[in-house]
Amino acid sequence: MIFRKLLRILHRDFGYFIVGMTIVYALSGIYLNHRHDFNPDYKIFITDFKVELPGKTELTATDVKTALKTVDEDVVYKKHYLNNQGNIKIFIENGEAVIDPETGKGTMQYLQRRPFIFSINKLHRATLGSMWKWVSDLMAVILIFVAVSGLFILKGKRGFKRWGWWLMAAGIVVPLVFALIYI
Predict the structure, then answer these.
(1) What is the DSSP letter of 161?
(2) Phi-psi region of 104 (alpha: psi -120 to 50; beta: other; left: phi over 0)
């Protein structure tokens, strides 16, 4: 009985410890599961605009930067060129802009990080360096412990021997079926 009491105490305390991390991982997992439906890390902004361009045939980087600043003060210019359609294609930080030099009409597309979601997705992917990888591994070990110790805490007709092993088997079969069908 001492073993079961110790198991219950450890199960409870480790369970409390990982609640927050599990919620963060679960939220991130939902976003990452839908990465084919939308970009979970970035929002895509598209802005139509009109600018005044100097009447020169060759626009300098300064001319293009000045025109972009009238659209958005925070735009960071990188490079530009004249594309095959005769439009000015401008590379900006996290995006691009295209301007028709004759009319001055243009479109700007750029990405902006989703503040909280971007961060938790980086945590979920364990791309923050080796220290976070070890923290993430520790959480996985604790989750395994909580899952396995939970099997032995209850006894009686709702315990593992009578009821729990059926549900555990179902929990193993469901992902295996999907793996066999789709992989």
Answers:
(1) I
(2) left
